[in-house]
Amino acid sequence: MRTEQDTLTIMPNRLQAKQGEVIDRSTTIRFTFDGREYSAHPGDTVASALTAAGVKVLSRSFKYHRPRGLLCCAGHCPNCLVQIGDEPNVRACTRPVEAGMEVQAQNVWPSLKRDLLSLTELGSRFMPVGFYYKTFIRPQKLWPLYEHTLRHAAGLGEAHIDTPPGEFDKQYLHTDVVVAGGGPAGISAALTAAEAGAQVLLFDENPTLGGHLRFTIPLESPSSTEVSKDSPELLEAVNQQPNITVFTDTSVLGWYQDNWLCAVKGTRLLKIRTKSMVVATGAYEMPLIFDNNDLPGVMLGGAVQRLVHLFGVLPGKQVVIVTANEDGWDLAADLHSLGVNVAAIVDEREPNACASPYRDGLVNAGVPVFYRHIILEAIGSSAVRGVMIARLDEHSKISRVTTQSLQCDLIVTSIGWTPATELAYMAGGKSEYNSDRAEILPVSTPPGIYVVGRAAGIHVVDSQITEAQQAGSNAAAFAGFGEFDEAAAQSPGVIEPRRTSDRVCVPGNKKRFVCYCEDVTDQDVETAIAEGYDSIELLKRYSTISMGPCQGAMCSMNTIHLCARANGSTVQETGTTTARPPITPVTLGALAGQNMEPVQITPIHQWHLDHSADMMVAGLWLRPNHYGNPVAEALCVRNRVGLIDVSPLGKLQLTGPGVPELLERIYINQWRNLRAGRVRYGVMCNDEGVVLNDGVCAHLRDDTWYMTTTSTGATTVFEWLQWWLQSGWGEGVHLTDLTDNYSAFNVAGPQSRAVLEKLTDRNLANKAFPYMRIRSARIAGVLCRLLRIGFTGELSYEVHCPSGYAVHVWEALMDAGREFGIAPFGVEAQRILRLEKGHIIVGQDTDAMSDPLSANMAWAVKLDKPDFLGKPSLMRIFAEGPKQLLVGFKMVEPDVVPAEGLQIVVPEMDGQLEIIGWVTSSRFSPTLEEVIGLCWLPTEIASQNGTSFSIRMDGHIAEARVHHGAFYDPDGERLRM
Amino acid sequence: MSIQLIRQAFSGDRPPPKMWRSHELKEQYDVVIIGGGAHGLACAYYLAKEHGITNVAVLEKSYIGAGGSGRNTAIIRSNYLTPEGVRFYDESVKLYEQLSAELNFNVMFSQRGHLTLAHTDGGVNTMRRRAEVNQIEGVNSRLIFPDEIKSLCPYLDVSDHPRYPILAALYHPPGGIIRHDAVVWGYAHQADVRGIHIHQNTAVTGIEVQDGKATGVETTRGCIKTGTVLNATAGWASTITTMVGLQLPLITIPLQACVTEPLKPFLDVVVVSGSLHVYISQTDRGELVMGASVDPFSSYSMAGSLTFLEGIAGHVLELFPSLSHVRILRQWAGICEMPPDYSPIMGFTPVDGFLIDVGWGTYGFKASPIAGKTLAELIATGKTPTLIAPFRLSRFEENNLVGEKGAAAVGH
Amino acid sequence: MLLLTCPNCGDRNVSEFHFGGELSSRPKDPSALSDAEWANYLYMHNNVMDAQTEWWHHNAGCGLWFLADRHTQTNEVIKTYPYTKRDA
């Protein structure tokens, strides 16, 4: 029984402190994993701390719930995905541990250690790739039940319903050169470009620059380079270089058109426009496919080096290294020098193929070496206990009789690399399979895009640096700094073999995983191809390989090899799948940034809120729907006076001699004959004859006209007019958008004149200022435009005042109106009032297919004008006669309000209903004490006043009658008072 | 457990049966279908199954399902606005309901319910209009309000705080999602079984027309004589139609989508918001699949944009504020050919023997079975089935457009 | 994000612009057209997968409607230029 103290301090796998590590051993912090407490040092990642404590199993796999442990330790594979608090699918190997962190294993039941869902593996024989397509088909009724089970077995982390929104933001950057990746190649490219005078942004996903130099010893030619993790000259040079801005902990997510890059640093999204880009993003280490290759304790070489050098953690005591190149030997030498027991080096090559400078030293030190051997199987149930190896015969076939097992608790594979070239391919780069190198390498990139370092297949640090310097110089030149070196730009670079075998898979008789995210085995791949899913894209979609959290970083290269082999074709012919952003998964929060939903408010907005307005969304605008009682507001307008804020109306000023001609063309009505000082209602159509917008237009004086549009259509009309003006109809017309400059209020009701008279010297008498006229007047000292128009059906004035004075004018109107019982009214009251007058609302009573001849605006259509937008289409509708009409109706029952959107029907013989129309507007009219509305009906019914028809309401039928003309004051006498 | 799986489990090293085979291009086919997506393959299948026409080639320039069929967000519904649209898509849903059994391939049609949110009065009215039309046409849809919305989808923010508060929703229980690739593969397999030739990696380079009649198709693998050509190439429809000298009322525009990392199931319905231009569902694998409205400009490029990702993330968080830590895994794009009235264009053209199945905009995948079936009938009988008569090409000249454009701006 | 060069304002993000469709012109004398010709003008498009001349509006900028030659497969903008009557 351990004491609590033990639990806190035990980190059995922690090595002695050494230079280069990133942890602070002076402090110990605590966190929990699956409810159990662990300790860590600041600088540890969740995974390094757990590994230090001896934890091997971090997750369970997606399909079979097999135990999984650290594999890549670089944030690429799915094996260490955990839930941290509210955050699902966190990569434990890159997330710094924090004091008090609560880390949970995902997708396990009941626990990580004893996950009963792992029993699914017993049935794995019946669950080959795509098994779900072949089962649960009959009986069909049971499918929802199966589906429920499947769904609950799937998924990884949890999204908690009470997760707070969090804080995220965005940063915009413009630069000459972007260098993605801060290893030796990236740093060198950045330095060269910066020295040429270019502004450089250098991005790296790790907490510090240095790339693989942080955790590998520069073994190739230590004498010829001054770089190592112990000699930070490059880093110092970067710090000294004012033209370089470094972003660490920053992942570049994608390249988009015209060198628009996206990166993420924590909760901040970076959007970067650059002139050129150097891709120095390194390479993913390839796993080897063999029996039980997913057993915790099987790791990639880079993972072990990261753990050892950055965190002082050794994930095993007895290490077997499986390799086919010098990297494995480098690792062996590295571990051996730290006193680690290297139990064996298993090298696929002939002894003389190994050119490692460490070879003799390791052999002399007694490290067992198995040349021409290959790994067959990792032995163990939830962690590695040993390894089976076998000899290759002279034909490179596995000689099963030579099989032997070795004891070990850590198997490290180091067999080769997949260049991380997504950015280059997104930018349009082309790739080719290099069979000498057994890597797919970029062979051409668009101008201004350069690939260096391991991403270009260059592994020797010296070459990485010289190649990168050339690329950096060219990237700067492309951005306009210094001379472009054409020869260097096309130089293929020094490429030296890091991988001599294209063997990616060792057959056996257990499960061998190609794709760790989705539990896809090499057998699954073979089966899928045999079934006909034989192209790389079909294979991906059917097996779901490369579609999981690793996005192919671990599996794509191996899959291509397997696919090529199964099809008897080459890797080049097989090709790759398309690289798609984001390269690293990115949170919705970072992509969204701060909530930037635009909203438009009028200058009176605060007043409305202060007067308990219920606000509603109208396009981008927020408008008062009502101030408590819309019916009372409507009656106040009918009986006394009301005030509504109509500032969202579009307001356009047109000047010049060409205006009348333009208006004739864009409106369906006539304009030439409108004298100065007069106002006319106008309707605009497009050439299809569909109603676009309506509003009044005033002839202010001489060449000056003032047009209003609907609130939501204001920008559309402005853009529409600009188009016609600039594409040939603009002679003699100048257009200005005054929508924001002017605010507008409608003073409506029989007392409206009396209210205004208190605030102006202008003669408002009916004779001096009749209906449908415009005048300028000082209202409360502010020069305004007054339009005497009447959407509400009462005597009313629309007051257009400069927005800076809007609150003053509004309050003056309210003050002046107090003695007359003025009240503000909102959109709902206005809707009641206009409906009583039978006025339509474009967009509510009409839709994207309605023409004015049908939409009760036939009176406005002047088909005798020479030409106007929509005329030919309207001529045709006129000739054929509209099929439907928008018409008023009254309900027969006085208390039944059919909701807007209800359908007008006739019963058919078979009891079915046939739809013949629908209700667009309906209200109880407080003035008439009747239910009124507008609807679409077939012409033959609509054209007969009083014809009754049926509206389907809650499954019943309600009767209504066609009503022609306005419901209220049909002769418009009240408008002209 | 299916016999097929049991057989596969104990088959040892014997390879499983091929879903479809490769063939040499024949000199003559009775029908040539251009486009190996769900529409083209469905049409091929129904030609064989219902009309016994099996001398048919399906030509696919890439791999089957490479276009819109494998790029859509796999939403199936019939809650349209116009009676024509409702009837047509209702037939499609009915075929989808039987499709796993029909094709003996589980297409995983999950009828989990579909919510179209309304954030404005106008939106509520449109939803009510659709609910009413749906009910009259016998389709299960109704208008529901925040309490019920919350019970169907607890993660939605139904408070009045958001910029676009949720006022109501059109609830369409039969709507849901499906495994889109499986539809393609299922049809391909059953077409192959009936002797139809599926030619992948076979691009059409020209169409022979003599005396106003289509007589043959030129491909990258050789020429074919035929009397009937069906253009079922969706986003690329104009590029094929131009080979017979015709124009179409189409504009090709990208439509983008993205997917998150897998999460434990929490979203049981499909959620669509017209005002916020977003639709979202959770697959059986746990990923959230999300899409938006079409791109702001025409293009055949399938590169995808950051603007889309930023926009959809913001809009999804408006609806589901607790998802800010959920990660986007992958984005992609498909291309859609948008017609002026948001309704398909199906059937005959002025060139005899050259038929079209185009204009599928953002709503093509959900029509695959019924489009395939009705076009097969049209090809076999030479007569236009009533169900698709409103969608004829000549409607534009006749000024008889279909009013589906009146529905919400997002057509999912 | 695509960059477009506004003839007035220079290089700007495409998000500042509104796409106006492929270049087409309203018939000079609509009354002389048959129904079919008018329907062609209203609805038909070349919709090429190739270089296309098209309208753009700098709606978040100077308000200019101008023309761009853009390849619709790659989105590469070949050139942008102000509209003149002879482009009609």
Structure in words:
The complex is a heterotrimer of chains A (977), B (412) and C (88). By secondary structure, chain A is an alpha+beta fold. Chain A contains 26 helices and 48 strands. Chain A folds into 7 domains: 4-134, 2Fe-2S iron-sulphur cluster binding domain, sarcosine oxidase, alpha subunit, N-terminal domain (Ubiquitin-like (UB roll)), CATH 3.10.20.440; 169-284 and 418-490, 3-Layer(bba) Sandwich (FAD/NAD(P)-binding domain); 287-415, FAD/NAD(P)-binding domain, CATH 3.50.50.60; 513-568, Arc Repressor Mutant, subunit A; 631-648 and 741-850, Probable tRNA modification gtpase trme, domain 1 (Gyrase A, domain 2, 2-Layer Sandwich); 650-738, 2-Layer Sandwich (Alpha-Beta Plaits); 883-976, Aminomethyltransferase beta-barrel domains (Elongation Factor Tu (Ef-tu), domain 3, Beta Barrel). Chain B has 2 domains: 22-72 and 181-248 and 341-406, FAD/NAD(P)-binding domain (3-Layer(bba) Sandwich), CATH 3.50.50; 110-174 and 251-338, 2-Layer Sandwich (D-Amino Acid Oxidase, Chain A, domain 2), CATH 3.30.9. Helices cover 27% and strands 23% of the residues of chain B. In chain B, strands 5-6-4-14-15-16-13-17 form an 8-stranded mixed β-sheet. Chain B is globular, with a radius of gyration of 21 Å. Chain C has one domain (3-87): Folate-binding fold (2-Layer Sandwich). In chain C, 10% of the residues lie in helices and 38% in strands. Chain C contains 1 helix and 6 strands. Chain C has one helix at 35-43, and strands at 3-6, 10-13, 18-22, 51-57, 65-71, 77-82. Chains in contact: A-B, A-C, B-C. Chain A binds chain C through residues 256-258, 260, 687-688, 715, 719, 722-723, 726-728, 867, 871-873, 876, and chain C through 1-3, 18, 20, 25-26, 30-31, 33, 35, 38, 41-42, 55, 57, 59, 63-65, 75, 83, 85, 88.
Key phrases:
heterotrimer, A: 977 residues, alpha+beta, Ubiquitin-like (UB roll), FAD/NAD(P)-binding domain, seven-stranded mixed beta sheet, 48 strands, disordered N terminus, C: 88 residues, mainly beta, Folate-binding fold, four-stranded antiparallel beta sheet, two-stranded antiparallel sheet
What is the element layout, followed by pairings?
The complex is a heterotrimer of chains A (977), B (412) and C (88).
Chain A: H1 4-9, E1 29-33, E2 36-40, H2 46-52, E3 59-60, E4 67-68, E5 81-84, E6 87-91, E7 102-105, H3 131-134, H4 143-153, E8 169-180, H5 184-195, E9 200-203, H6 233-240, E10 244-247, E11 250-256, E12 260-265, E13 268-279, E14 283-285, E15 298-300, H7 301-311, E16 318-323, H8 326-337, E17 341-347, H9 359-364, E18 369-371, E19 373-379, E20 386-392, E21 398-407, E22 410-414, E23 417-419, H10 422-426, E24 430-434, E25 439-444, E26 449-451, H11 461-478, H12 486-490, E27 513-515, E28 520-521, H13 522-531, H14 536-543, H15 556-567, H16 571-574, E29 586-587, H17 588-592, H18 605-610, E30 614-618, E31 621-626, H19 630-639, E32 642-645, E33 650-655, H20 659-666, E34 679-685, E35 691-701, E36 704-709, H21 714-729, E37 734-737, E38 742-748, H22 752-757, E39 774-779, E40 782-787, E41 796-802, H23 806-817, E42 823-824, H24 827-836, H25 871-880, E43 884-891, E44 903-907, E45 913-925, E46 930-938, H26 939-942, E47 948-953, E48 956-963
Parallel strand pairs in A: 1-7, 8-9, 8-13, 9-10, 13-26, 15-22, 16-17, 16-22, 17-18, 32-42
Antiparallel strand pairs in A: 1-2, 3-4, 5-6, 5-7, 11-12, 12-13, 14-23, 19-20, 20-21, 24-25, 27-28, 30-31, 32-38, 33-36, 33-37, 34-35, 35-36, 38-41, 39-40, 40-41, 43-46, 43-48, 44-45, 44-47, 45-46, 47-48
Chain B: H1 3-9, E1 31-34, H2 38-51, E2 56-59, E3 75-76, H3 83-103, E4 114-118, H4 121-136, E5 142-144, H5 146-152, E6 168-172, E7 176-177, H6 180-193, E8 197-199, E9 204-210, E10 213-219, E11 222-225, E12 228-231, H7 237-241, E13 251-260, E14 270-273, E15 278-282, E16 288-291, H8 306-319, E17 327-338, E18 345-347, E19 354-358, H9 368-381
Parallel strand pairs in B: 1-2, 1-12, 2-8, 4-14, 12-19
Antiparallel strand pairs in B: 3-7, 4-6, 5-6, 9-10, 10-11, 13-16, 13-17, 14-15, 15-16, 18-19
Helix pairs in contact in B: 2-6, 2-9, 3-9
Chain C: E1 3-6, E2 10-13, E3 18-22, H1 35-43, E4 51-57, E5 65-71, E6 77-82
Antiparallel strand pairs in C: 1-2, 3-4, 4-5, 5-6
